[in-house]
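Lecture 7 notes: from sequence to structure.
We start with the chain below.
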Amino acid sequence: MRANPILLQKKYARVIALFAGKCNLTLDAALDFFYRSKEYQLLREGVADLHCMSDDYLAEDLKEEYQEYSK
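Predicted structure tokens for the same chain:
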């Protein structure tokens, strides 16, 4: 299922804001990481209806990817 592009952009904004708070990042740094992340690729491609997951779930998943990347 493909998500409405406008609603998906709003979801991205909410997830990025949550992710920034969880990792103590600026919004710019969080945005930069988000658009280079595997999670963004999956969301953009509509894999497994990932866009249907809660914002908090996606932010936590992104946080785990960031921690793995930061090692």
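Points to note: The chain has a mean pLDDT of 93. The chain has one domain: 5-70.
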